[in-house]
Design a protein that fits this description.
It is a single chain. The protein has one domain: Aspartate Aminotransferase, domain 2 (3-Layer(aba) Sandwich). The protein contains 15 helices and 14 strands. Strands 1-10-9-6-5-2-4 form a seven-stranded mixed sheet, with helices on both faces. Helix 1 runs antiparallel to helix 12, helix 4 runs parallel beside helix 5 and helix 4 crosses helix 8. The protein is globular. The structure holds pyridoxal-5'-phosphate. The site of pyridoxal-5'-phosphate has 13 residues, from helix 4 and helix 5.
Length: 415
């Protein structure tokens, strides 16, 4: 059984990229220099926009973008109810009104029919979130935005490199924001990016960030050490011998230490702390430049793995598999299935050597901190309760995928 144990994920950062960081450890300049022009230009070229600005994180990207765009406190901004809590939390902190719209139950992205019904005279922007690597139908979003005079802010935190109608996410709207943490398919060991096609918006964002100090060397090294540890722990032999038995033992206690160690406390943003206001450093830019060269290959491998799982799991009883919409190129940042007894499926899969995760999205409309903005989002509530992330990462090969399919089917057929 040991040889079959399959970890839930695998970091995308390469040994060479980690070496780039570690070999600079005594070169103080590499960690204080915030010159990122080359990385930003390469990223802008990759996405297909005029400007890319390195920012501290996705939520700070949103903050900086909204500070630069023509919006005012009290404006309504449409967001999917199924998203990362920090996005509506940032809207609320800045004085905007997050308007939660339900998801389409099979794509898990904005239900576009509902978006139009929720637009009022106060609506100023819409945030299409390209969740799990699936681009939203941007033809439709841009049409609606034009018709109602809305700004479009693309959430590309999970869709770096994904295309809709041949164009990359982050190149359609007024701005797009990205996040590059150590667990992301595109990583610079922290930080993020804003993309846009308006140099004056880019200039305002750069100006707003001009006083930000560089992120500390300790923070970058900590992210590099974390990524190295994740690479080691998810090595298949080590995972099977050590982590998998430990995860099984924790599961008996109803605990998932991996998810718990990465989970951020879900709470309102009451101030922008100093550690949010940091600039990425040139050593991270070097990692980013290297990642740009590899990202399409990694996405292609995940796409192939995702399609393999999707085609073979389709039709399994009580299992909703992800759908791929016309024009969208799904890069399967995650492969998320839905089933009425998610805990049972997770438990049985783990027992048979397949590690899974519940993920860290929230049913934001149902969160206490957003009680003033609550709206009926039944598909989000159901999906949130039923979602399970299966392994789909770039290093999985056919025998492992076949094992995942066979095991899921065996478990579901006896439910
Ligand atoms: C869809 C989505 N939006 C926004 C964020 C927030 O990113 P950050 O932690 O960089 O602010 C995340 C985090 O992963 C995310 O998945």
């Amino acid at each position: 059984m040991l040889f079959r144990a399959i970890p839930r994920f695998k970091p995308s950062v390469s040994g060479g990229e980690l070496f780039t960081v570690f070999r600079q450890v005594f070169n103080k300049n590499a960690f204080t220099d915030v010159t990122l022009g080359y990385f930003e230009r390469e990223f802008a070229k990759y996405i297909g926009v005029s400007d890319a600005i390195a920012v501290p994180s996705a939520r700070m990207g949103l903050y900086l973008a909204l500070s630069a765009l023509p919006v005012e406190k009290g404006d309504e901004i449409i967001v999917p109810a199924l998203t990362y809590y920090s996005i509506p939390a940032m809207l609320s902190f800045m004085g905007f009104v997050p308007v939660f719209v339900d998801i389409d139950p099979t794509t898990c992205t904005l239900d576009l029919e509902q978006v139009e019904r929720r637009i009022t005279s106060k609506t100023k922007a819409i945030i299409p979130t390209h969740l799990y690597g699936l681009p939203v139908d941007m033809r439709w979003v841009m049409e609606i935005a034009e018709k109602h005079g809305l700004l479009v802010i693309e959430d590309c935190a999970q869709s770096c490199g994904a295309r809709f109608d041949g164009m990359r996410t982050g190149s359609f709207g007024d701005v797009g924001y990205f996040t590059f943490g150590p667990t992301k398919p595109f990583t610079t060991l922290g930080g993020g990016m804003i993309t846009c096609n308006d140099p004056s918006v880019a200039e305002k964002i750069r100006h707003e960030m001009s006083g930000f100090p560089p992120v500390s060397r300790g923070a970058v090294l900590k992210a590099a050490v974390t990524a190295s540890a994740m690479k080691t722990a998810t090595n298949r032999s080590l995972f099977g011998a050590f982590l998998w038995p430990a995860l099984r033992a924790f599961r008996l206690l109803g605990k998932d230490p991996i998810e718990e160690s990465f989970r951020e406390e879900v709470k309102p943003i009451s101030a922008i702390p100093d550690y949010f206001r940091k600039k990425m450093t040139s050593v991270q830019g070097d990692v980013g430049v290297s990642q740009i060269k590899r990202i399409d290959d990694l996405s292609e491998l995940r796409h192939r793995n995702g399609m393999y799982l999707l085609e073979r799991l389709q039709g399994t009883q009580d299992l909703i598999v992800p759908s791929v919409t016309e024009g969208s190129e799904h890069i399967f940042t995650s492969f998320v299935v839905q089933t009425s007894d998610r805990d049972y499926l997770a438990r049985e899969l783990l027992r048979r050597g397949v590690d899974t995760a519940k993920g860290y999205m929230s049913d934001c409309s149902g969160l206490e901190m957003f009680k003033d903005y609550r709206s009926e989002c039944p598909h989000t509530t159901t999906a949130f309760r039923n979602m399970l992330h299966l392994p789909v990462y770039h290093t999985l090969r056919v025998p492992q995928l076949e094992y995942i399919v066979k095991t899921v089917k065996k478990i579901m057929d006896v439910i």
